[in-house]
Amino acid sequence: MGAIVTLKNVLKRYRRGKEQVEVLHSLNLDIEEGDFVAIMGPSGSGKTTLLNLIGGLDQPTEGEVVVAGERIDRLTGSRLAAWRARHVGFIFQFYNLMPMMSAERNVELPLLLTPLSRSERKRNVKTALEIVGLADRAKHKPGELSGGQQQRVAIARALVSDPTLLVCDEPTGDLDRQTADEILHLLQLLNREQGKTIIMVTHDPKAAEFASRHLQVDKGQLADAARAAA
Known about the structure:
By secondary structure, this protein is of the alpha/beta class. It has helices spanning 47-54, 77-87, 103-108, 118-131, 147-159, 177-194, 205-208, and strands at 3-16, 19-32, 36-40, 62-67, 70-71, 88-92, 165-169, 197-201, 213-218, 221-227. Helix content is 32%, strand content 30%. Strand 4 and strand 5 (70-71) form a beta hairpin. The radius of gyration is 18 Å and the shape is globular. GO terms for molecular function: ATP binding; ATP hydrolysis activity; transmembrane transporter activity. InterPro entries: AAA+_ATPase, ABC_transporter-like_ATP-bd, ABC_transporter-like_CS, ABC_transpr_LolD-like, MacB-like_ATP-bd, P-loop_NTPase.
């Protein structure tokens, strides 16, 4: 397997008032297809910025970001949005579900941007909910589900388009330990049995133990903390 994510000499600056703040400094990184990577670091270290660059939610000030063979640092507007829809499934800490929609409707949302027919969308949604163990909750709205179930719906939504990689920002940060471990086991299963490439930002060392590779970000620099034991 080759690298599915490559960052070359990536630098990221933000403007704060009259000041330019450099968040990432000449960063280089390769992530192999099928990796499960945990990105850790103190608050303000640049780990979420790094995740956003990989997921195409932000662009570097300098350098190259190549994901799934595409120079996404060169893409803008609708082309970048179309690339994200095709290649990246996002999982966030607070689920970001539409409260008035059922689980199946929430999962279907990314497919509305595709040319799939209604019956094809329905089939994909059913499969995604089955994968996360929520086929029997398809008609329930988020308010009728537990936090762990809501995050499973969010994972199903991320999976439904069969993306190249899953990008997770503190996916268990709002869950108790037992529920968090259930979600992490699910991510590990998706990685090991379906070969999904997963990149996860977390502050939780226990969550990082589920990953096969650990990266440490500090003051905009990157240290590969080696691979976890298989």
